[in-house]
Amino acid sequence: MADHDYDLVVVGGTAGGLSVAISSLRSGVPTVRVLEANNAVTFPELVGMNQLDVGYGESLVSVDAHEDGLTIVSSRHRYLARALLIADRPSLPDWKPPIPIPTMGCVQVDAMADHIEEHDVLVVGYTDHAVELAAAAEASGARVVLAAGGMDPDRLSPAADHVLRRLERERRITILYRSVPDQISDVGGYPMAYFSDRRTPDLQFDDVVIASHRRTLTPDEVGVSAEALNTGLVWFLGEPDQESVETTAPGHRIGPDMAALFPGIDAATWAGQSRRHRHEGAVDELRTEHYNATITHFEPTHSDLWVLRVRPDHGGTNYIPGQYATLGLGFWEPRIDDATDPNLEQRWDKLIRRSYSISSRILDDHGYLVDENNLDELEFYIVLVPPTEENIPELTPRLAMKRPGDRIYLGPKVAGRYTLAAVTDPGSAVLFLSTGTGEAPHNAMVTELLRRGHYGPIVSAVSVRNSVDLGYIETHRELERRYANYHYLPMPTREPDVPKRYIQDLIRDGDFEQAGADLDPARTHVYLCGNPAMIGVPEKDGSFPETVGVVQLLSEKGFTVDHRKAPGNIHYEEYW
Fold first, then answer.
1. Given pLDDT bands bounded at 50, 70 and 90, which one contains residue 200?
2. pTM of the entire structure?
3. Which one is the CATH code of 282-410: 2.40.30.10, 2.30.30.240, 1.10.8.50, 3.40.47.40?
């Protein structure tokens, strides 16, 4: 075998290994070689993009000290190198998933079926390894949801962060940054993931993959001699709290320490590979990296309340009325107020994401009931959240600065089980009760009911502070003129000439009966969206909140809350 001279050899084409290889080259290390035992690295797209030198099908055999460097023997070649990084990280022995999982072939740890094209796949995890599994599933043609509750982007390697941003920007993967399932069960032969987070619906998949935690390899496992280890030229990818090997560090922070091995390499420059610093043009770069949609319509009802529409660059806009999607803007965007975001300097290059129910324009440009699934944009109804001492809102003060033509982030997949699936009788009464912008999903649901010929009573009641907060009132009045079974009940609570009444008062005073919608649990569905105090969801022990909400009043009339395992006729969506 011939000798090959390299400044750095990286063993393992993992996300962390690729990150170190790329940052080394960008920082000025002349020659870097990646050894990968398989026929592909974790993220193949990064090889050509960064002109990486990869030895496929090469596994590490031994490492010994050699003069001022190392002699590295692989299954194919012998290398002379200035430094070595071991980036492979196997799973922890006896590692168990943190949630209960059923014994099913389609629910596995670190593995997935051979043929998952067109499958719905859930990947659970918040590390580089979880991103690797999610990217592999997407590349195999699966529809992927990554449940990454607790994911800290700063702890991902740059390679994993880059790939995750691209998949999300191109709307090819759905990422739940704050949610992980509490349990996975076998329901009808398919895994069902249950989430305690009320904003995340329980979801059923074809396959579930749990990303295990990884460990750092030891010198003995990879044939590193004691002499080689004592040179200080051998590094192991891992976590700094793993004391078994002193030269361990996460992939995105190991480079600056290694920089001392290479004369003329600036450690600060190397460190900069993992975090973007402010410079001229940085905002434009960040917008290009993160934003994947365009604002096509921005119509203020007043200065603090807007209707906006968003057209994605990639993917469709089909959704079920009542569902929600995610909008996002960067911390780098200006705010309309003078509030200061906590820790802005550490977060300025990050994306702010929030979920918003999808609204509907209700009537198209020709005056017909709109068919949203024939459009190429989504409509949202959003109110500006003012800052307080306890809360500095992040997204809406930035959204207030946007106008048609501006770019924005749109999540890759709509979701939510707050839909009309339970309304199967076209003669039943359907009541939509909301506060503020909580009427957004109801606009789409009312439109859908009228489009499909529902002839039972339909009532939409909206509680707001002032009449100017009723952004869709004229359209609803037009619906009332066209459809005898539809009634719109706007309820401003702070108008001087209007008696103050709340949604609960409509139930107590029999207003729905006057509108032809008897509160009969056998023939009525009630949808609630908005202020949790208005809704009044009972606690886990069944007790109701101190403030009497709609759920309590309806329960006293024989209504029941809808659950997946116990269908009912009270459906709700809390807004905070």
1. confident
2. 0.77
3. 2.40.30.10
